[in-house]
Amino acid sequence: MDQHLHLQYEVHRRAAGDPRGARRAVPLLIFRAGRTPGSGVRPSPMAARGGLQGVAMRIETHDAMILMEDVGKWYGDFHVLQDINLKISAGERIVVCGPSGSGKSTLIRCLNRLEHHQTGRIVVNGVELTDRIRQLSGPLSEIGMVFQGFNLFPHLTILENCTLAPLTVRKMKRKDAEAKAMAFLERVKIPDQASKYPGQLSGGQQQRAAIARALCMSPKVMLFDEPTSALDPEMVKEVLDTMVGLAQDGMTMIVVTHEMGFARQVADRVIFMDKGRIVEENNPQDFFENPANERSKLFLSQLLH
Ligand SMILES: Nc1ncnc2c1ncn2[C@@H]1O[C@H](COP(=O)(O)OP(=O)(O)O)[C@@H](O)[C@H]1O
Ligand SMILES: [Mg+2]
After folding, report:
1. Does pTM surpass 0.85?
2. Which residues is 223 bridged to in the sheet?
3. Where are the beta strands (DSSP E) in 115-243?
4. Which of 22, 38, 120, 160 could form a disulfide with 156 if both were Cys (CB 3.0 to 4.6 A apart)?
5. Closest residue (by CA) to atom 6 of ligand 1?
6. Ligand that lies nearest to the alpha carbon of residue 73, given by its number in the listed order
């Protein structure tokens, strides 16, 4: 794997709070070239498929930005994702909900290779995600992710957090990367926080900084994993407002959230997961007013309104 890809991979891995990297110093980890440590998962049967090493073959997915076909994943013997079939078009906003442990995080983490699926296939913008990591520079860099715990680099300022990947992965000029970062910090309404460190910001400000950081890579898809659930209640709205703004601008979004007001306002579809499966998929109005599945009904009845 070349150094840039590795950097990008590690930035994602670090940003995810991956325990495999947690004991190493960040700069060492980031600039170490070479193979990623073994993930301990079963080898994907897709790795054995034909095709040239490192060459991304485009797959015709018609209008699907993301295609998941019969996707399965195990953690050891535990079948965490089962028979996942999902097609997401450009510009669609999907809300994923379901009980804790139902596989929501695992599903979206498979889309940017923070986790590897083992059966079925995932195609992002026409490129299949396989173990041939070289071909992932395209699709991975097209997916931005925002985590529950913000996952900003604590030793970098907000501006440096925003310019790190554009400078190192995209090789942007510093002046351009900083101008772009400032534009996005304006957009999430925290330009005045640019020279501060994450620990000096409120939770809501940190999460908006994390959204700006993801946008600085010009993603085609944004994944959000419970972006407001670690926030104090008074900060939830400022983050949701930022996300509504993104949705209104036409960003393709997959949002794991239990913020049902957000789901009603912006989602084209709500996906309900239980025990590793998608058990219901519907437009928000029908999902909330007339859930078809017993488990969705129970889940909705337990949410606070
Ligand atoms: N790295 C892991 N190793 C083993 N089990 C895991 C790992 N990550 C998650 N799990 C388990 O997989 C299930 C689904 O987890 P997750 O995708 O995080 O669910 P959700 O986001 O819906 O709460 C849970 O039972 C969780 O304990
Ligand atoms: Mg989760």
Report:
1. no
2. 145, 254
3. 119-124, 127-128, 143-146, 221-225
4. 160
5. 75
6. 1
